[in-house]
Amino acid sequence: MKRAVITGLLALLFFLLQSTLANYIEIAGISPNLLIILIVSVAFFSGKTAGMLTGFFCGLLVDLFFSDILGFYSMVYMLTGYVCGIFQKKVLEFDYKLPLLLIGAADLTTSMIVYWCLFLMRRRFNAGYYLVHITLPEIVYTVFAAVILYRILYAIHQRLILEERRRDGYFV
Amino acid sequence: MKRKKTHIPGKYILLLLTAICIAMIIASYFFDTTRGPVRTIVGYVTTPIQKCLTIAGDWVEDRFSYFRDKQDLISENERLQEQVETLTLQLQEQKNDFANSERLQQLYEFDAMYKQYPKIAASVIGKDTGNWFQVFLIDKGTNDGVSIGNNVLATGGLVGRVIDVGADWAKVRSIIDDASNVSAMVQETGDYCVLSGNLELVEGGKAEFTKMYDSDNNVVTGQALITSNISDVYLPDLFIGYLSDITVDSNNMTKSGTVNVAVDFEHLREVLVITQNK
Prior knowledge:
- Chain A contains 6 helices and no strands.
- The relative contact order of chain A is 0.14.
- Chain A has helices at 2-25, 34-46, 48-66, 72-85, 97-119, 127-167.
- Chain B is of the alpha+beta class.
- Chain B contains 4 helices and 12 strands.
- Chains A and B meet through helix 1, helix 3, helix 4, helix 5 and helix 6 of A and helix 1, helix 2, strand 1 and helix 4 of B.
C-alpha cells in the first residue's frame, strides 16, 4: 500500500518535473523522457502488474494534459511497463547494465510507436529524420538522466523492501 | 510472506486496462473531449494536478530568478575583493537588465501594433512531455478571460491558439506544431495558402505552406505571410513570417514551400493572448 502511494507520488513528481522543467533542461530542443525511467524502474523492481499500473497512471496524466487522443499514451506506457516487468529480478543487486538497456529500449519502442501512430499516419514518411533528430538524442539524454535517477529510485526501492520485510516479520 | 488480498493475475488487469484505453481512444475520436460532459468529468481530476503544475511552474520560474538574485549578491561580495571584476560583472548585469527591458519593450511595442484587440500578457510555465509536439502551458486562464480558440501572439507575430483552458492555466498549440494548420495569405498579393507545422522544420524556426494557387506568379520569397481573412479560428492580418522558399508542386497548379516564422519559439517566455475570438 505504502509502495503504491509512493509510486503514485513519484509519478506525479516526475510528470511535474517533465513538464515544468523541460524548458530549462532541454538540450538542442530535446528533453529526456523521465516518465519512461520511472515506469521501467518500477517494472524492473516490482514486476509486471506494478509496471503496468505505473505506466497506465503516467500515461493517463500525459493523456489528460497534453494528448489529443485520450488513452493513447496510457496504452503505450502501460504495455511498456508490462513488458519491462518480465525482466524483474527477485534478488536485486545494484547494476546499471540491464536497467539502462531496458530504459533505452523502452524509449526507442515508445518513440517508434508514437512515430507510427501519430506521424506516419499523417503522411510524414521521413522516418530517418525523426530517428536521427528526435528519437536518438532523446534516448541518449534519457539514458544519461537515468544514470542519476535510477540510483535514487533504487535507493527508495531498497528502503521500501526493508520496511516490507520488517512488517512481514523477516527480522523479528 | 503473508498475503492479505486476493491475487488477480496481471494479465487480466492488463486486458481490462487495454480495453479501457481502447474505449477511451475510440471515444476521443467520436466525441470532442475538450468540451461537454467528458471535459467536466476530466476537469474534476485534472484541476488539482493542473494547480500543482501552475504552482510548480511559477515556483521554478521564481527559483531561477532567485538564483539570478543570488548571483548578484555573490558578485557584490566579489566587488569588495576585486574592484575590476565587479565592474565587469555590473556591466554584464546592466546588459542583462537592458536585454530584459528591451525584450519587454519590444513586446509592448508589438502590443501597440495590434491595439484593436483586447489582450492580456501571460508567462509560459510548462511544456508538453516528449519531443514530438509543440504544445505549451501559460499561467492565465478563464479567470483572466482566456477561452478556447483565443489567438496567442508574442514579439514578432503569431504564436498559436488556445486549445484547452482551466481557471488559471491555458494550453496553447503553437503554429509550428506538427498537427497545426493555419489559413494564411501573402500580405502583398492576397494569395491564400495553408500554413502547417512540420517537426522536420522546427529546428530551423520554419514552417511549411501548401496549396497556394498564385496563378499570376506574383509571389516571391521574402514577402510577408499573415493570417487570412477567411480563417474561422484566426483573426485576420496577424503577422506570421516571411516566405523563405517557394516551389511549384508536381500538379503544376499549386505552390508550396517554407516560411521563416517571426516568433522565436525556442526562447518563448512571455506571450500575449487576444481575449476575443473571431
